[in-house]
Amino acid sequence: MVKPISNIVGIGQLVEDTLSWLACIAQVVAPPVLRIALAVPFFKSGLTKWDGFLSLSAAAEYLFEDEFKLHIFGHAYDFPLPTALAFLDGIAEIVLPVMLILGLATRFSALALLVMTGVIQLVVPEGWANFHLPWAALAIAIIALGPGGLSLDHVIGSLRGSWLLHGGD
What we know:
This protein is mainly α and 169 residues long. Helix content is 75%, strand content 8%. Strands 1-2 form a two-stranded antiparallel ribbon. A two-stranded antiparallel sheet has the order 3-4. It is elongated.
């Protein structure tokens, strides 16, 4: 009768060890996967905003001037300075995803994309379930978890820590 209890204890330990191993793997893999998942849709959108290096596409200007409206409290409002905002949006949609993928200023980049997602929600309110909610969840997870070990933030932090430990020499 003692043998079945020891088998149960052994199986329980195996399950605990397996779950612990999975958690360790997920801690390494999850941050870069989350960063890539959030970066891709914004980067793809950013590519559509340009006709060349720092040459905003006519379509991007048109969207911000004529199509995009901020839906606030039941009213639609035009964007202030639409061409300037289209330009800034186009830059942000290229630079922030690249920074995310590299894991550079990761939490800042995720926060900026979270703010952009909030603005997009005001422009396209019906997109919340299929797009905005998942993007917001990804950004919040990145902010909460940080860049992870496979990131430039981690490398810079390690070098800075090493530099500080050796008296700045």
